[in-house]
Amino acid sequence: MEIGQSSGSKSSDEVWAKLVPSDSSYASIEISSDDAIVCSQISSTSDKLEWCQIMRSSDRCSATIRNKRTKVILIDGAILESDDVVAVNCGSEIVPAATREGYLSYKFEVMPVQEQHSEKYLKISLDPEHTKCGICLNVWHDVVTVAPCLHNFCNGCFSEWLKRCQEKHSSVLCPHCRAAVHFVGRNHFLHGIEEDILLADASLRRTAEELAVLDSYASIKSSLFALRHLHLD
After folding, report:
1. Is 79 left (phi over 0), alpha (psi -120 to 50) or beta?
2. Which pTM value belongs to this model?
3. CATH of region 128-229
4. Beta-sheet pairing, 73-75 with 93-95
5. pLDDT (tens digit per residue) in 71-126
6. Which residues contact 42 (CB under 8 A, 6 or more apart)?
7. Alpha-carbon gap, residue 64 to 85, rounded angstroms
8. Which of 4, 39, 149, 155 could form a disulfide with 48 if both were Cys (CB 3.0 to 4.6 A apart)?
């Protein structure tokens, strides 16, 4: 009987796959390296022998396996010669010998990606210069987006601009590009970025008094409004 153990480089705390033995009295072999070597230990001795190399695929859902033994091993019942490589998927059976008799067989299992882990693969990096209102030139506060040009401003700043435009003109123009504005709305996605920028650099924050004044000007309450439906205080 042979018992497996894994080792490898590029290890992380994340266990992305396991080799689950057919005999439940033995522990599973956890694989936390993108390129792991699995060794066998003969129960009657302390000798360890490499018997396979498991390499994680870029799709993160499968792997390739290389036979590190001088003899054949079985993958899903097919013979894999020494140093040959074959793809394996979740559920594949691996036997570190040419026969199941007298050897543990293992089922290859890929661990499901946890939702909380997926967050680390999405990171948005934005220069503070690209998060500034085109009217006051500070980082947005309660950011709104105008359409169709999609430029962004503080709610209070654009509300005051909107009020002056409606007093003097029949149409509202974007203060950045002077395109006609048909819609305006609060942008909740950019509001999250606005908060992250201010958390990263407190020097960009305005005083509570300045923000209170800005909030008193703000008249845009919804995510999307046609300008003809806006009611200013």
Report:
1. beta
2. 0.46
3. 3.30.40.10
4. antiparallel
5. 999 999 899 999 999 998 888 999 988 888 878 889 999 887 654 344 444 555 56
6. 1, 2, 49
7. 7
8. 39
The matching CATH number, chosen from 2.60.200.20, 3.40.50.150, 2.102.10.10, 1.10.132.30, for 2-120 is: 2.60.200.20
* Dist CA 17 CA 58 (whole Å): 14
- Which of 153, 145, 112 lies closest to 223, judged by CA? 145
Grouping H, G, I as helix, E, B as strand and the rest as coil, residue 229 is helix
* pLDDT tens for each residue of 111-140: 876 543 444 445 555 678 889 999 999 999
